[in-house]
Design brief:
Length: about 190
C-alpha cells in the first residue's frame, strides 16, 4: 500500500507549488491526490468525496491527515465517515478548495492564472515558502500513511470490503455485517 501511496503523493516532494484543477469527479484516490496538492480550483459542478468507508475500507493516501490539516477535523470526520459527495461550492464552504469556477475550463483557467501569479514572484522565496508550509503541514503525515496502509490492508481482507464492492457493482446499498468487538465494561481491579 505504501508504494502505491508514494507514487501519487510524490507531488509533495516537488520544490514548487502544485495546483490541482478539478473539472469533474474527484472521488476516493482522485480527491486524495488533489488534496496532496497545495492549491485546488474546481468547477462548480465537480463532485468530490471520500467514499472509502462505503466500500468497507479505511481511507488511504493521506486522506485522514490532509483533510484534517486543510479543512479541520470536523470536516474530516463528516466527509471521511459518511462518504458524502459534495459539489464545488460545498467544497469551498468546507475549505477543501481555494476557488470555485462556473465550469471545468474556467477552473483550469483559474489554476493557470494562480500559477502565473506565483511564477511572477521571487523564485527562491517561493520555493522556501513552499518548503516551510509543507514542513508544518506534513508533520505527522508519515505516521498517518503507515496507519492508513495497515488499516486498508486489513480492510481488503474483510467481508465488508467484498460486500461494498459487490454493492457498487450491483448498484445497490451495501449490507455490512462485520463488527469489531469492544469490551465497554470498566476494568475494576480487585482490592484483595
Amino acid at each position: 500500500m505504501r508504494n502505491f501511496y508514494n507514487l501519487f503523493l510524490r507531488v509533495r516532494t516537488l520544490p514548487l507549488p502544485v495546483i490541482a484543477a478539478v473539472n469533474g469527479a474527484a472521488i476516493g484516490a482522485g480527491l486524495c491526490f488533489a488534496m496532496a496538492c497545495d492549491i485546488r480550483a474546481v468547477a462548480a459542478d465537480a463532485r468530490l468525496g471520500f467514499t472509502f468507508v462505503g466500500l468497507g475500507l479505511h481511507p488511504g493516501m493521506g486522506a485522514t491527515h490532509m483533510v484534517a490539516s486543510i479543512a479541520g477535523y470536523e470536516t474530516a470526520y463528516r466527509l471521511l465517515l459518511t462518504g458524502e459527495l459534495v459539489d464545488g461550492s460545498q467544497a469551498r464552504e468546507l475549505r477543501l478548495v481555494t476557488a470555485v469556477e462556473k465550469d471545468g475550463a474556467a477552473a483550469v483557467g483559474r489554476a493557470i492564472e494562480m500559477a502565473k501569479r506565483i511564477a511572477a514572484q521571487a523564485p527562491v522565496a517561493v520555493r522556501a515558502c513552499v518548503r516551510s508550509l509543507r514542513q508544518k503541514q506534513d508533520a505527522g503525515l508519515e505516521q498517518a500513511l503507515w496507519r492508513e496502509a495497515d488499516a486498508q490492508s486489513y480492510g481488503y481482507s474483510t467481508r465488508d470490503c467484498l460486500e461494498g464492492i459487490e454493492a457498487v457493482e450491483g448498484k445497490r446499498r451495501p449490507i455490512f455485517t462485520q463488527y469489531e468487538q469492544y469490551d465497554l465494561a470498566p476494568k475494576v481491579k480487585s482490592a484483595l
